[in-house]
Design a protein that fits this description.
alpha+beta, 57 residues, binds iron/sulfur cluster, two-stranded antiparallel ribbon
């Protein structure tokens, strides 16, 4: 299960660029989860998020 903290996300777009199957940018310029499955690329995106907005459960 993936979750993006909308308050933390700064809209850098990294996660959506790295793992578009899991993340997309919404109309507020924040990332949101497309598919909650915990894949390798989703993990990489979570680790790479500069503000730690992506959580994995
Ligand atoms: S990598 Fe983090 S800060 Fe950047 S868009 Fe994704 S959730 Fe937001």
């Amino acid at each position: 299960m993936l979750k993006v903290d909308q308050d933390k996300c700064i809209g850098c777009g990294m996660c959506a660029g790295l793992c578009p199957e899991s993340f997309m940018m919404n109309h507020d310029g924040k990332a949101e989860v497309v598919k909650g499955e915990v894949t390798d690329c989703a993990k990489n995106a979570a680790e790479g998020c500069p503000v730690g907005a992506i959580s994995i459960k």
